[in-house]
# Entry
Amino acid sequence: MAFVGSNPGLALHPADRNGVHIPGEPASCFASFWMAGWSRWGTGHALLIATRQGWRSYGPNESFAASMASEFTRFFPEAARFPLTELTHTQDEFDVELDLERGFRATGGMAELEISGVLDRRQFAVPDFQLGGGSGTLNNVYLPCSSGRLSELGIRWPGTPVTYSGPRGPSSSAYIAVAESWMI
# Structure
């Protein structure tokens, strides 16, 4: 066992001035918020933000944030277009609200992530999730959501999550993953 906790995530895609997603445009950023009840790298919170301008982390523990970025987040499909070459860290403390009916909010002094509009709740499992040269087993309860927003230093990132129909129900680039475990 390597990690037990939750991991909400948000990829924002370009939208027109009415907030409607512009089809075919790739995500401008990806945010992943790690909440470890237990992990090899310690417990706590870390917000990771991947962009074309680089990767940034926010939280009370730089080592924990760096581990979540290098061990997991950089291998997520949503983060694939943002290569992790360097990670800059800003000390921050978060107030976290997680409501499985309404959504998630992490409010820090320097950054904020909000994901809401829960569309579904279902089990998600990948027995062979590729993590660089190796693989891991991922299990969680996946909650795709219809909306999300991300702010850094008081500036809100533009864009909107993308929702789509899937064979098992709706999916979205805004999601909450709870009861998450990784075995590597």
The longest strand covers residues 134-152.
